[in-house]
Design a protein that fits this description.
heterodimer, A: mainly alpha, B: mainly alpha, elongated
Chain lengths: ~325, ~260
């Protein structure tokens, strides 16, 4: 399969999946036990108010019509109006999204850098105390809830030692603790992946061949690393979803004014259109990243394109 | 190590009423925010409630939700995976696109959205967690079913008149038990973290139920003066998740020793 056909194919799948996501998001309102309008307004609301809200939410229409309206709105960038803040959902999300992306990207950068260094050291010093320490760090990092890590870091570095601000956004210092909180979990996963992948690659025939030809150790490792990193990139791309989920919790701990804290307040206020919009945007960002990883991976590794073209499926 | 931690947590959970001297909801305003003592092993919170009792009884909520959601996801995923892999064709195509659709959402965000519409409570949280976990089992069982159903022993059994049900449940499914056990064990740890996360945000089981996540969130208000209020429930979550993760890793190494050799 040519690169162009592969890219077009992935883009078509992306568009259809996004459409499916929008359908699911639109159906969320129908899952609310009872009448969503009554749930939002409360049991004492007047029938007129309930009827007006039902109309505003499109609940007075059959679901296919409501769905068509929702999809049409999404295509135009109209995600409805927040019930509580009475502002367009799109504007509220656009205001908060940069903060979440800033945090997620900082965490990704930090997590991958720390994980990469630790993974390489661990693999090269296999069986040593350093290797054991990295593996203990990785196991603890994978098992530790992100919100507790955030609280501990905040208690020590912000409350006790006053090195960084405990809440808010605005300067680089504000970003350090939230990014570290969100990034350390990823660093644990990355260090395990890099270690395992590098250990496997170091035993490949071509690496042994390079050693036999007398190539310096550093060059052999550099060769091995390039191939070892390919599967790591793919897995970390998928892990970005966990990062987005973790960002909701991290933002709550550090009062970070992003999409996560907006989601928490929207859910508390049963502001259904806002919840729907946030879920849709999170899923779109997640899918876009998957697409980017797929495309980069497909371009770098021709085997992926062959599989996508009808070879054995990875499912 | 992993099995030791799992046994420890299960013991605390099962024997919580005998291991604690107070009810998790009993308030003693005179002893509020007191440090560890003979009467209150881990101290008390702002309402004078015993922290150790809240953690011991909280383990019941976390484990009940985690075990139920993993069991439900395992069941649903196995049925979908078996049907998809064995019957193939249009059914496989439709079921796998459905799986892909659920995988298109960041897992915790999907759980949050479902709890947002369903409301808080044990059943809502269990349902939400089931919804974010079942796809992994479906894909795993489908892959195993696809590969096993092409093997000679299945062809032979079919030619001897074995029914689809016999082939699926007596021949193919048992081959998936090992990998499923590993994924499910690791899944329990993930479910506990997700449940605690939902409780931490206030969308899990409602207070005054002693959920670990809510106890931790509440303790955060006293970070400056009483740090142990958030340290103790955090440690409880860490120990439990670590236990299930180590247990799952050990199980995987035992079932697939090649991986152990490869990576050691």
């Amino acid at each position: 399969m040519s690169v162009l056909r592969y890219v077009v194919r992935r883009l078509i799948v992306f568009v259809f999946t996004l459409l499916g996501v929008a359908v699911v998001v639109s159906a969320l309102l129908r899952l609310v036990p009872g009448d969503p309008a009554v749930v939002f307004l409360g049991e004492n609301a007047t029938p007129e108010n309930v009827a007006a809200l039902r109309q505003a939410l499109g609940l007075d229409l059959p679901w296919p019509v409501q769905l068509a309206r929702y999809l049409e709105g999404v295509a135009r960038g109209d995600l409805g109006r927040s019930l509580f803040q009475r502002e367009p959902v799109f504007a509220l999300i656009a205001e908060r999204l940069p903060a979440t992306l800033e945090l997620a990207l900082a965490a990704l950068l930090l997590g991958v850098s720390i994980g990469f260094v630790l993974g390489v050291i661990s693999a090269l010093k296999r069986g040593s105390l350093t290797d054991l320490a990295v593996m203990v760090f990785a196991q603890l990092g994978v098992s530790m809830p992100v919100f507790w890590l955030g609280i501990l870091l905040s208690a020590l570095f912000a409350v006790r030692w006053g090195l960084f601000p405990a809440v808010g956004r605005g300067s680089f210092a504000h970003l350090v603790l939230p990014a570290l909180t969100l990034g350390l979990g990823l660093a644990s996963i990355a260090s395990r992946l890099v270690r395992a992948s590098l250990l496997e690659t170091l035993h490949e025939v071509y690496v042994l061949g390079a050693r036999a030809r007398g190539l310096p150790h550093a060059r052999v490792v550099a060769h091995a690393l390039r191939n070892a990193l390919l599967p790591v990139v793919s897995v970390l791309g998928v892990r970005f979803g966990t990062l987005l989920g973790g960002s909701v919790l991290t933002e709550s701990v550090f009062g970070w004014p992003g999409l996560g804290t907006l989601a928490v307040s929207a859910i508390s206020q049963r502001d259904f259109p806002l919840v729907q919009g946030i879920v849709l945007v999170f899923a779109t960002v997640f899918l876009a990243l998957h697409l980017a990883v797929d495309l980069v991976y497909g371009v770098l590794d021709p085997r992926i394109r062959i599989e996508a073209g009808g070879g054995p499926s990875a499912d | 190590m992993g099995s030791l931690l799992v046994v420890l947590v299960l013991t605390v959970s099962i024997f919580a009423p005998w291991l604690t001297r107070h009810s998790p909801e009993e308030m003693d305003m005179e002893a509020r925010l007191s440090g560890p003592s003979a009467s209150h092993w881990l101290g008390t919170d702002n309402f004078g409630r015993d922290l150790w009792a809240r953690i011991a009884f909280g383990s019941r909520i976390s484990l009940t939700i985690a075990l139920s959601s993993v069991a439900a996801a395992l069941l649903l995923g196995t049925v979908v995976g078996l049907a998809s892999g064995y019957f193939g064709g249009l059914l496989d195509l439709l079921l796998m696109r459905f799986v892909d659709l659920f995988l298109a959402f960041p897992p915790f965000i999907l759980a949050l959205a479902l709890v947002a519409v369903l409301g808080p409570g044990v059943s809502s949280v269990t349902l939400a967690l089931t919804a974010i976990f079942w796809m992994e089992y479906a894909r795993l069982v489908r892959a195993i079913t696809l590969s096993e159903s092409r093997r000679d022993y299945v062809t032979a059994a079919r030619s001897l008149g074995a029914t689809d049900a016999h082939l699926l449940f007596r021949q193919i499914l048992p081959r998936a038990f090992g990998p499923l056990a590993v994924v499910a064990t690791l899944g329990i740890g993930t479910a506990i973290v997700a449940e605690s996360g939902l409780s931490f945000l206030g969308f899990g089981v409602e207070p005054p139920a002693p959920t670990w996540g809510w106890t931790l969130a509440y303790g955060m208000r006293y970070l400056r003066s009483h740090m142990w209020l958030s340290t103790a429930p955090g440690l409880a979550i860490l120990v439990t998740v670590l236990g299930f993760n180590l247990f799952g890793d050990g199980l995987r190494d035992r079932l697939d020793p090649r991986g152990l050799v490869r990576n050691s």
